[in-house]
């Protein structure tokens, strides 16, 4: 049985609010579960205080700032592995300083580089519970190491239990943000992006690719292009079909919103997580999967054309049945 205490220490006032630090970086699958958990905790206890640790000028810094939570920067991992030990030590010291100032009762690690020094720092401080959340079917490197130090481990899939100490584990699914679980109408969402109805494309390119893509297509009258989508709930609500990579949180959000989709797993993850995620979505929700090697404009166009109204309706129904949108603790 997993049990975590979040009560203030005896030396503190009884009115001392619960403070939770979150650490997760690199991808949305590491960042958005933390935001969803924070939303649920805030709803259950409005006095809760949160601090998010992550790397500067990143996915997490943009998402967390947009959500209105406090964010503290930790140095990014170096490009050259020769300097990794030095940078990791620097990151650990930074995390110790941030946690000393914030005095959290719990540190939640959701994967990625920063979660490792943050959770280690929490253990070095003493008296701080460490919880990790693993969104993928195959654990990332940081969570695999941290599992031995964690007080509790929350996982999305039953198959992940074999990768962690079972006595610490609880299968809870992936938490989905409240805004995505309660979408506005399609008409309202469309009006945020476009002046009238019709066939349009909403494209989140990612920060690194934005300038090049924008220079090629920015004059297209039926395209909304952005490096980062701050209002992802509106994008989901406006969409009839989603074409996306297959990150764990993307797959869960597609299921929670009941949207038909075409998934293109990224080959840039050594554990093969995205291909496994996409394969699972194909089995349970009937999504179309295109590998990177198969991908070109013709292949994608044909895949889109093959998805008629009847198949879209079936995919939507199956996605909703597979969803567990209330996974947040």
UniProtKB/TrEMBL annotation:
The keyword rRNA-binding does not apply. Residues 1-15 have a biased composition (Low complexity). One of its GO terms (biological process) is carbohydrate metabolic process. InterPro entries: Glyco_trans_28_C, GlycoTrans_28_N. Keywords: Glycosyltransferase, Transferase. It holds the Pfam family Glyco_tran_28_C. This is Glycosyltransferase family 28 N-terminal domain-containing protein.
